[in-house]
Design brief:
Length: 288
């Protein structure tokens, strides 16, 4: 197609397959259902404040699981689902490990595509982060120790929160994020324009550039882990690798990690084990 950005030269069907996360994992439906079931159990294990509003829209809410002691680092997680599925209710499963390690956990909710544009979703997430910075001290969290994490589309959104240029109008400092760990993220959206994802992402060449974290790196970067599963598609691996390389080329500290034996969906489950290498890396970034 004219104007198509396809650096690896895939044919149309193969490019679509590379970005079809669910099709790349035979039991993806069961793994996604496990998010929900494990999250229900997690909310029974740790105390939390559920559906705390950060904005006026019904979708603009947070779940907060406070640390036992004040001044704790904050683990702020943004869920995936290709911007069109899942919610904060499917992401509580990460809370018990981080709370027990000494963190306050915040799980962010946002409106879903195609009813909400990607630009609106990015704006919601930025306002949520600003709310956390202003209010998290009341929940035993330190606004100076916010660790930002997300998976898949949530990794993309984390990248857009790390990007430059939005902090001033929201009255927050440019170094609002202390450290970060995007998992299996999408950082250059240009290849998606000519895939099935664009049925709901509704990108064109201009908006794909505007919404690609790869092209909006911050003036000052934080320490970061960029991680993905061993059994991801080549394109999902490449997306993480090029973002980490750009971060490194800007002089910012970054660690790359391929999590052995995991795929696009169960890579997050490794974070439930405090002794897993990927968990130790994230906890180390948080000072825990």
């Amino acid at each position: 197609m004219d104007g198509e950005y396809n650096p690896m030269g895939y044919g149309p069907q193969e490019l679509d397959r590379q970005y079809n996360a669910r099709a790349s994992v035979p039991d993806s439906t069961a793994l996604i259902q496990d998010y929900t079931q494990q999250s229900i159990l997690a909310r029974e294990q740790v105390d939390g404040l559920l559906s705390v509003p950060y904005g006026s829209h019904p979708d603009e809410t947070l779940d907060i699981f406070p640390a036992d002691s004040p001044g704790a680092p904050v683990y702020l997680f943004i869920h995936g689902g290709y911007w069109r599925a899942l919610s904060k209710d499917d992401s509580s499963f990460l809370a018990p490990m981080f709370v027990r390690a000494g963190a306050t956990v915040v799980v962010l909710n946002y409106s879903l595509a195609p009813a909400a544009s990607l630009s609106r979703i990015v704006d919601q997430c930025r306002r949520a982060l600003a709310w956390v910075w202003r209010h998290i001290d009341a929940h035993n969290g330190s606004r100076d120790r916010i660790h930002l994490s997300g998976s898949s589309a949530g990794g993309h959104l984390a990248g857009m929160l790390l990007a430059s240029g939005w902090h001033g109008p929201m009255g927050v400092p440019e170094d609002i994020v202390h450290s970060a760990s995007p998992f299996s993220g999408l950082f250059d959206l240009r290849p998606l324009v000519h895939t099935h994802i664009n049925e709901w992402a509704r990108l064109d060449d201009t908006s794909a550039l505007e919404l690609s974290p790869l092209f909006h790196l911050p003036a000052r970067g934080c320490p970061m882990l960029v991680a993905w599963g061993e059994h991801e598609t080549a394109e999902f691996k490449r997306q993480s690798q090029i973002y980490a390389q750009a971060w490194q080329a800007s002089g910012y500290p970054v660690t790359l990690m391929e999590v052995p034996g995991t795929n696009h969906f169960d890579v997050l489950m490794a974070l439930r084990d405090p002794d897993a290498p990927v968990s130790r890396e994230v906890l180390g970034l948080m000072g825990l």
